[in-house]
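anyone seen this seq b4? input:
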Amino acid sequence: MALAAPCGGAAGPCALPMLPVLLLFLPGLAAGPAGMLQPRDTPSRERRELGGLWSFRADLSPGRDAGFVQRWYRRPLRQTGPVIDMPVPASFNDITQDPRLENYIGWVWYEKEVLLPLRWLQGDPAPRLVLRFGSAHYYSIVWVNGVQVVEHEGGHLPFEADISSVVQGSPGSLCRITVALNNTLTPHTLPPGSIQYMADKSRYPKNYFVQNTKFDFFNYAGIHRPVVLYTTPAAYIDDITVTTTSSDSLATVQYQVSVVGSTANSLSLSLRDQEGKVVATGDGPVGELKVLNPNLWWPYLMHENPGYLYSLEVRMQAQLDGALLEDVYTLPVGIRTVHVTSSQFLINGRPFYFHGVNKHEDADIRGKGLDWPLIVKDFNLLRWLGANSFRTSHYPYAEEIMDLCDAYGIAVIDESPGVGIKLPESFGNRSLQHHLAVMEELVRRDKNRPSVVMWSVANEPASELPPAAPYFKTVIAHTKALDPSRPVTFVTDANYALDHGAPYVDVICVNSYFSWYHDPGHLEVIPLQLTAQFENWYKTYQKPIIQSEYGADSVPGLHSDPPMMFSEEYQQAMLREYHSVLDKKRKEYVVGELIWNFADFMTNQGTTRVLGNKKGIFTRQRQPKAAAFVLRDRYWRIANESSCLPPAITSHSLFL
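predicted toks r here
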């Protein structure tokens, strides 16, 4: 269908806001922004989720600029014209029967009216009130009672605003939250994209355009994760950073706490085990806690008690305007170490082999919207499968998902939204500055998570281009400066001899699809080509290697013997051919394998995609294909070979 170009291609308030070109960001030299502690209920803090139905309106004006020209944020959205109910969290694309929303590009508007408790508005001093979005794709502008409070670029990380002065200065306790959201992708966004205008008037309507991307998943848009109002005291704990070291008998938890609003009179810390027993205490903003005979955080199937978490309670007291204020925050802490050698990935000093999956935040109707039943189902399937890890392909996942990874012992390669970096202009200074900022946001959010064992800064960039060398050198160095405790990688599909970014990674992560995208239908080429792939990469770089993607599409119920492409049998056969080589190389320097993909997922329409990508070992509705049983047998066999667990745990019959 015809779509009007946003602003007719002109720059202005309705176009995706352009970010200024900045001076090169030197790693480690810039002070990061405020902390981004996950909202939690504590004795000093309250939180309220604002999920449910919001008012929604897509700006269908020819220039997509009516909302700004008419200032829709100045009054209730229903007074500006027709609105519909829109669930939050959810993508808006698949919710209605209106085909214009499915592939809509431009500004959409959300609104929610909330009554605030009077205790949030009163006091001397009154509490601090914060509005936080788990994520909204892609560019967000937020108003409260008609006053702009925050702008944010990026669709997969949280952002927030202190709205205390806005609501405390407004009559009554009504809080009207208005969000303008733009899903346009440009060569300088992350992920990148481009708008293509169709100028041939004999074939396309006036101002017709399409959004082009270089990634293979649907560009869902909307408020995808919870929106939360939370309170803190006027003087509060702003950020906590924790790193751990350990031996069999002693662990050290190093911490740094920042406080905002006043100088703390006292700052005390207590570390409790899962039974609530205090195992270490400390005081002051910087220090370390000593834990005797620690329970280490182990990945699933590496220990009979995986995902062990302590609770670090931080308690602050401060004087502000003559009042004594207290803030309490509790942070889950897992004690574990990560180390990389030339041929091994070590967790707590023991070799760790990634036998896991790549995933997507994707499901029927809700798109990328957070959905608890689906999340719990996926973790049950992961454990049934015997998977000990996944990569957050190709963007950071929801904090709620990461919480369960911490608790269940699922190791995570935490990936930025740097997917589809293919155009030369996406390696320029403007793109680089945004990429550095995104890594700061990602590290700030997930730095304390024991499940995060490695950062990935990108997936399948055009790393054969010469500008990729300084680009990835800078991004990786910056990430290491932000967090020296974890290895850093990016995922490549480039030729080993041409990849300009690989010299800077700690672990080689390589994607390949032999007998699918290369030599389609020829399973017999896999052993030779995959062996050569591993040997060439290792000979060149002497770094451990993860087969970070491999797989084949299969249509559920489509069968063929001998195996033919798109049949369930072909998917099984491809996996077995890859596994025969992986079994040899994992005894040397291959440290992991991640199937593409955990489940079928939606993509843009195209002649090679029939209602999405079908490379899942589960359907989009989470039903197993034949390949799921092949992978399950393999993963449990690998776990049993390397495990010291009791038979009741190592037998996969426990999870039937």
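The first helix runs from residue 66 to 69. The CA atoms of residues 384 and 656 lie 7 Å apart. kinda curious what u guys think
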